[in-house]
């Protein structure tokens, strides 16, 4: 939510004899010209251009009405109360605010206007809050009246506009007592963008600490079961297996957390991955505060005798062998669940009582800058570590990469496979020259290296496979559907539950295939 997003607030009335008038405006002179000392020299919005929309016909009353003029957006909620006690049996007013036309999140302000219009309607119907003030102050007697002239001087409506403008711009909420039984409570709720699709290979990382919560975060059973396994290490697929939950439900639960900013998504950590700096690395180089935060976060704690510290989480230590390659971890990794906030805030170290300056050599700022700027395209993380063994002493490499990604200093260069081979190219030839066959394929006797049952054609005495049904995975052609350049190796490894080395070997067994990085 942008700060000071509201440029002006004004209140208009339609009089059966005087017509439509702006009775209150904050700041002075923002809608109609005013002679007040603090009035704006030029109105933000010319009232002549919007007069027809301020108090429209009854068909448009009691609904949100917005329009743009002079690069600003006016949001109003015209109200028409039909009662016999009023002149011509109706009382029409409009409480509106002005924001910049370019403001993308204007819908949140629209909800405030809608609520305020309904509140003022209720106050008027209950005790004549608006009409009584007009009668006692003689608002319609001065023909030269110009909004701000009447705006001050103890008007409750003007005071409401003034307080709402300041409180919403400064605090995004306000609570204003009207009388003993009525209070105005308004809050700007930001409109959140739809969450991105959640894939099985995504790695969720909590941005807040949930250990301090006394009540369950949700009554959703899937959400409750998966939260203990969200540690910035496990992929969504692995979380579903560890929590014994359905994968589709797990993806929806993670998507729910992402929507509310409780979780961010990372890539699977692998020493075969490639990372490179972004333009944000310049801010890191000049910001010593972020450098200090980074040094605390990535430093491997020195374990002193008599101190009981567990490195890594229980779920991390119980990782199955099938995910070892896809979830490579350094032996000194501390689970990222214990840390809070990201990007805009600091990541506090939970082992602050252990990690003191006396525990080891401090990581210098120069070392951090050198390491982050040494990452580049074409350099795998494994080779990066081998090239900087001395500088990486006492540094958790996983945390080093995670911190850079969270702060936006690093981006992942993904690996994709593209093949020109199609299902048509491996389709059976005419029956006169080929014979369909089914064969049991040993693990080392076929190009794809899968032990299972192969279905294909015989050409020239040689079996050419059309598909392979693995003995461990009941799928046909498990690899071919990923070789269109749209699926990263992270996704392939996760979906097929194979290591990157295995996928590499199988990709090489497919003819006319290229591996690209982007």
Automatic annotation (TrEMBL):
GO MF, one example: GTPase activator activity
GO BP: negative regulation of TORC1 signaling; positive regulation of autophagy
GO cellular component, as recorded: GATOR1 complex; vacuolar membrane
Membrane spanning residue stretches: 257-276
Keyword Metal-binding in record: no
Short name of one Pfam family: NPR2
Family statement: Belongs to the NPR2 family.
Protein name: Nitrogen permease regulator 2
Organism: Amniculicola lignicola CBS 123094
């Amino acid at each position: 939510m942008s700060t000071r997003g509201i440029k002006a607030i004004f209140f208009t009335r339609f009089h059966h004899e005087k017509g439509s008038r702006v009775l209150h405006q904050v700041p002075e002179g923002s809608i109609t010209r005013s002679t007040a000392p603090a009035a704006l020299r030029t109105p933000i919005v010319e009232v002549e251009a919007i007069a027809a929309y301020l108090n429209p016909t009854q068909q448009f009353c009691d609904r949100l009405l917005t329009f743009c003029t002079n690069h600003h957006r006016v949001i109003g909620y015209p109200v028409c109360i039909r009662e016999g006690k009023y002149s011509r049996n109706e009382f029409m007013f409009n409480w509106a605010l002005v924001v910049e036309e370019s403001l993308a999140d204007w819908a949140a302000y629209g909800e405030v206007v809608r609520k305020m219009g309904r509140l003022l309607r209720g106050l008027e119907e209950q005790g004549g809050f608006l009409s009584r003030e007009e009668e006692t102050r003689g608002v319609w007697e001065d023909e030269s009246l110009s909004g701000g002239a009447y705006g001050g001087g103890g008007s409750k409506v003007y005071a409401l506009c003034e307080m709402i403008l300041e409180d919403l711009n400064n605090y995004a909420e306000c609570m204003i007592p009207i009388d003993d039984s009525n209070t105005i409570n308004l809050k700007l709720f930001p409109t959140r963008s739809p969450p991105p699709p959640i894939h099985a290979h995504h790695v969720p990382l909590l941005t807040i600490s949930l250990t301090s919560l006394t009540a369950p975060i949700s009554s959703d059973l899937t959400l409750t079961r998966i939260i203990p396994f969200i540690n910035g290490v496990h992929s969504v697929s692995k979380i579903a297996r560890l929590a014994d939950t359905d994968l589709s439900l797990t993806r929806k639960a993670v998507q729910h957390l992402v929507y509310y900013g409780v979780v961010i998504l990372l890539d699977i950590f692998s020493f075969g991955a490639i990372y490179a700096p972004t333009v944000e690395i310049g801010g890191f180089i000049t910001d010593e505060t972020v450098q200090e935060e980074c040094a605390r976060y990535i430093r491997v704690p020195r374990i002193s005798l008599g101190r009981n510290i567990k490195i890594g989480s229980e779920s991390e230590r119980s990782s199955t062998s099938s995910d070892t390659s896809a979830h490579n971890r350094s032996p000194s990794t501390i689970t990222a669940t214990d840390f809070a906030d990201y990007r805009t805030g600091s990541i506090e170290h939970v082992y602050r009582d252990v990690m003191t300056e006396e525990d080891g050599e401090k990581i210098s700022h120069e070392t951090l800058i050198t390491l982050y700027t040494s990452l580049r395209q074409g350099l795998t993380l494994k080779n990066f570590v081998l090239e900087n063994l001395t500088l990486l002493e006492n540094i958790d490499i996983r945390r080093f990469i995670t911190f850079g990604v969270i702060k936006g200093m690093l981006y992942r260069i993904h690996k994709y496979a593209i093949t020109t081979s199609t299902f048509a190219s491996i389709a059976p030839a005419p029956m006169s020259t080929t014979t369909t066959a089914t064969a049991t394929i040993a693990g080392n006797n076929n190009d794809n290296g899968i032990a299972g049952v192969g279905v294909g054609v015989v050409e020239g005495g040689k079996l050419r496979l059309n598909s392979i049904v693995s003995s461990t995975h009941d799928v046909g052609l498990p690899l071919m559907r990923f070789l269109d350049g749209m699926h990263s190796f992270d996704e392939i490894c996760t979906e097929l539950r194979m290591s990157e080395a295995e996928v590499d070997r199988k990709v090489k067994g497919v003819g006319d295939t290229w591996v690209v990085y982007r």
